[in-house]
Amino acid sequence: MTTIARHLRARLKGWGGVGAMATACALALVFALVLACTGSPSGTTGRTVSHAARAQADEDCTAPEKQTLSPSGADGPTIEAIKNRRGEKRKLIVGVDQNSYRWGYRDPNSGESGTLEGFDIDLAHRIAEDILGDRDAVQFKAIPTDQRIPAIQDGRVDMVVRTMTINCARIEDVAFSAPYFRTGQQVLAPRSSPITGYDETLADQEICTATGSTAYTKLETDKEAGDLPTSTDIRTTVPNQLDCLVRLQLGEVDAVVTDGALAASQAAQDPTVQLKGEAFTTEYYGVAMKKEADDLVRRVNRILVDFREDTTDGWQDAYTEWLSATLGDDSSGSRPPAPEYLREN
């Protein structure tokens, strides 16, 4: 492989589309003026959050993990549409990963079908069971990192449960549940690498991140601010974060920056790489849904309350089964804080 070819590939960057919402916003404004209604219809909950309040929360975003709706078990238009699907199509459609070890992956020992397993998969089954009464009433769609938001906006999936960090940029495009996991960005590199963490040892190193990831945004922001060595090459981006591990194994890049929870799983798969340094951000995973799907957001938040509190088949059991082998038995650093919700009208 020539140096020129390597750097040509490094310059290629994926893209994640954002659907145009101007028409919908205009219709929503007319609807609000005619009916003097300050909130989007949320079906039977009797509680609304005004569009103005939500827009202000987005604009003043400092704690995106708190910009979600309060829990409710009531059905609304989004849930009714899911329940009204007929026959084989009466399933919850969930965007997931199929390559993230211990999160969403196909177990090679589970037969020809390669059953999807992992922490995120268990959570998706639990949501399907609550909404449709059957934990197996779920259709999984494997989507790359850079297609998570477009898949929601285009209606290809009802939700995404795919180690998706809640951040201020994303809450402008999709709605999130309350957090279900806490993590942070970390550096993954070969054991023999001189890299020691997210520091000056990244100078003259080529870093791989997933397109549309919070990792790339952090690297780009820090490099512009002078908090990352100017010689650090961050141009290599790929559709799926696991592709970064492959490039690292092939020697095409020097390090990977991704969520520590994912990096730990990758290190467990490949003993020649290891986490370098501590996490240098604090982030939270959430379930992502359409902005207008208020009833579904509220329902998922109620499910998450039970998931966190259940002493049997709850959050701790899922952590122990899927993540303790890679993150350790002490789950306190991964458990999200008590949820906070948007103020209701």
Give a written overview of the molecule:
The chain is 34% helix and 16% strand. It contains twelve helices and 15 strands. α5 packs across α10.
Topology:
Layout: H1 3-11, H2 22-35, H3 51-59, H4 77-83, E1 92-96, E2 99-100, E3 104-106, E4 116-117, H5 119-132, E5 138-142, H6 148-153, E6 159-160, E7 175-176, E8 181-183, E9 185-190, E10 206-210, H7 214-225, E11 233-238, H8 241-249, E12 255-259, H9 260-269, E13 273-276, E14 283-285, E15 288-289, H10 294-309, H11 315-322, H12 324-327
Parallel strand pairs: 1-5, 1-6, 10-11, 10-12
Antiparallel strand pairs: 2-3, 3-4, 7-15, 8-14, 9-12, 9-13
Helix pairs in contact: 5-10
| Number of helical stretches of at least 4 residues | 12
Beta strand %: 15-25%
Task: Please give the largest β-sheet.
Answer: 5 strands, mixed
Number of DSSP E strands: 15
Strand order of the largest sheet: 11-10-12-9-13
**Helical residue percent band:** 25-40%
SSE class: alpha/beta
Averaged pLDDT, please? 86
Q: In terms of per-residue confidence, which ranges show pLDDT below 50 for 5 or more consecutive residues? A: 1-46
Gyration radius, rounded: 21 Å
General form:
globular
Q: What is the end-to-end distance?
A: 61 Å
SSE string, helices as H and strands as E: HHHHEEEEHEHEEEEEHEHEHEEEHHH
Sum up the structure in keywords.
five-stranded mixed sheet; 12 helices; three-stranded parallel sheet; single chain; 345 residues; alpha/beta
Structure summary:
With 345 residues, the protein is α/β, with parallel strands linked by helices. The protein is 34% helix and 16% strand. The strands form five sheets. A five-stranded mixed β-sheet has the order 11-10-12-9-13, sandwiched between helices.
